[in-house]
Structure formats: C-alpha cells, structure tokens
Amino acid sequence: MKRTVFFISALVFVSAAFSQDADGTLFEFKYKKDDSSRILSTVDEAVFVNGALNHRAQILNRIFCKVTDVLDDGSAAHEASFMTSETSVGGRGGSFSWGQEYDSAFVRTRTGKYTIEDIYFMPTVRDVPVFPEYPVKKGGKWSAEGHEVHDLRMAFNIQKPFRVPFTAQYEYVDDETDENTGRTLNLIEVTYSMYFESSRPSSITRDILNAPAVTMGHSSQKIWWDNQKGMIDHYSEEFKIIIETFYGDQITFSGTAHAEVTEFKRVSTEENLRKISESVSNLGYGNIGVVQGEKGVTISIENIQFEPDSAVLMESEKVKLEKIAEILKTFDNDLLITGHCADRGTKQNQLRISEDRAVSVAEYLSLLNVRNPNCIFTEGKGASVPVAPNTTEQGRAKNRRVEITIMDE
User: Fold this and answer.
1) Is the pLDDT of residue 308 over 60?
2) Could you say which of 3.20.20.370, 3.30.1330.60, 2.60.40.650, 3.30.230.10 is the CATH number of the domain covering 270-407?
3) Helix, strand or coil for residue 294?
4) Is the pLDDT of residue 351 over 70?
5) Are the CB atoms for 157 and 143 separated by under 8 Å?
6) pLDDT number for residue 4
7) Prior bond to 123 cis, omega within 30?
8) Residue 97: C-alpha distances to residues 59, 72, 310, 317 (Å)
9) What is the spatial distance between Cα 353 and Cα 361, in angstroms, rounded to a whole number?
C-alpha cells in the first residue's frame, strides 16, 4: 500500500514575510497573485501488518501550487496539483514512474489555517505550520490545532477524505546559516500525536470490519524557514502511523521524510520554445520535433532505436540523447519521459515495452547528470496516442517514439 494513501508530509504554501524587533520575530504567510512554487518530498517508509514487515518503499511526492487570488484580509486562494509515485527499495532507482495525480483548491490565511471543501484528498497534512498572531522569540513555544486527511478509498473503501485531528506543539529553536548560500534560516520544530476512534456502525459487514477503528501515531518535524525569501526552505520528519481495524488487524507505517521547496520557473514561453526549437534543429536530426503541450515543452524523438525486442538503447541513440542532454541542462524544471509504441502485439505488451523504453531513456539522462533521479519521471502510453496511422511502416516508425517534457506543472 502506498505511503501517500495515508500520509503525505507536504506543506503547501507560496511565500511568507516577517518582521523582527526586540520583541521577537513575527511569522506570517504573505501571498502574491500568480506566485507559484514546487515542492518535492521523498519518503522512506516501512509497512508492517500485525507486527510483521510487509514491505519497504521510497515514495516521491511532487506538488505544484499557484496563488490564484489574494483576499482583502491577506489570505489567498490556491490551486494545486499533487503527484505521488512509489518504488520498491532495491529497484533500479534511475527514475520514478509518473504516479497517481490529485487536484486541490483551498484558501489559506496569513497564519496558515486552511479552508477547503470535503471533496479534496490533498494536501494530507493541513494547518501545519500555523503561526501565532504575535512575535516569537528564540525558545518561544505555541500550539495550534491541525488535522491529517487520508485517502482510504483503495485500502478500506472509504470514499470521502478520512479526517484525523491533532494539536501541534511548536518551538522557535534557533537561527542557522546555510553553508552553501550564506542565508540565515529559522529552525522551527513541530511535534504532534494523534489518537482518533471511529464511530462503530450499528450494522456490521465485512467491509466495516476492515475499516479503521482507531487511528493513532505521531510526527516530529524540523522546518527551516527562510526569512529573506519568506518561505520554507526545506524540512525533515520522522513519523509513525498505526491503524487498527474493527476486525483487529493492525497496520503500521513508519519512516522518515525530507522535502525542499523551490520557486517555480515557467518554461512554456514563446522565447523558450523558440530557443529549444532552434537548438534541436541545429542538431541536424530530421526525426526530432518540439511542441508545447499541457505539461510543458516536449522534445519528441521519433523512430527511436532499441536493440530488437528490448529496451536497450542503440549506441546511435545514446549519441543523440547526449546532444539533447546539453539542451535539457539549460533548464532546472523536472522531466517527464513518455514512451510510445506502434500498434503491434497485445495491449499489455505495448504498455510494458513503452514503459521500459521510457525508463531506459530516463536512466541514461540521469547517467549524463541531466537531473537528479528524483526529478525525472517516466510513463508508458503503449499505442494509445498515435501521431500517424499504424497501417504503414512509415506511420509505425513515427509512433515508436519517446517524448521528453520539460515540465511546467
């Protein structure tokens, strides 16, 4: 079961401002319309069922958030997209497959409180951090109510967000200097424990017996707050969540998480599209195109060559990717590698080979240090998105392609 079904430690916000005087530091969120941010968190998790280890996994959570409006009281409306992807520990590790996607919309106040409809499953951790209305000195402590919202649709057939309340304890610990940038960061520690008993229904069925009776656990977080930029720089967390069902089973999730927040840079501009198109054209290959799509700017490599019936890149394609890599290195945005194939063989085999070939390209780009593996995602589309008829060899060659998208969202 994916860690994201129960917990995503993601703090969704865009920017913050502060003032500091002899009385301490005033922390608050301050929003600007159209500001965007990207959060990338990794979770190393162990899952136990009735005390026995079930599996270990690494989960990647990618969040894109945009301020759509700023209200008179300083709060702001946000739109956000969430993607979660899981890979088993010990896997190839060259990339993450593009996973389940969620959309969300909410309003957040200057102090950090959420207003969000009961139809959204993300973000999971809400009302963290919440700041007091007064300045805080080093060593100062405060508390605030918060809650987690879990997606239990697949695990327990619960169709609405499953809400678990808690009271978080905060402490402004100290200031630290980033050795790489020289920036001063405020260290804030956050801890909370959860214990929530679900109401026992009057009628008992098999589904009810498998539903959560008690949800409990704890979280310990360290947040490094950047006062100059007015936003969280990064954070770390240790967590443990235990779900006991009415039937008596116990499922435990424990592990660590780390996340970094970056200011978002849009790549899908006319100028960037022109520059990328010119750079690709100068490579001299006739089967590489550049288009602007929903997720960003896409470089499409048609008739990409692999060894027969495999996902092993031919040497000629490696040379081609090495040249494309130099173009990709001029941007910092995440990459999505999408594999496609011609309409031959079974649907299952088409999907498998397109996924494997996308992974092969992603791993080679990672080997070329184009991106950290956590910033390269893959997906396979099989033969479901053809760009030419599959009735001719020329058309099938066009459909055997890999697309590299420099992502905007």
Assistant:
1) yes
2) 3.30.1330.60
3) coil
4) yes
5) no
6) 37
7) yes
8) 11, 41, 19, 22
9) 12
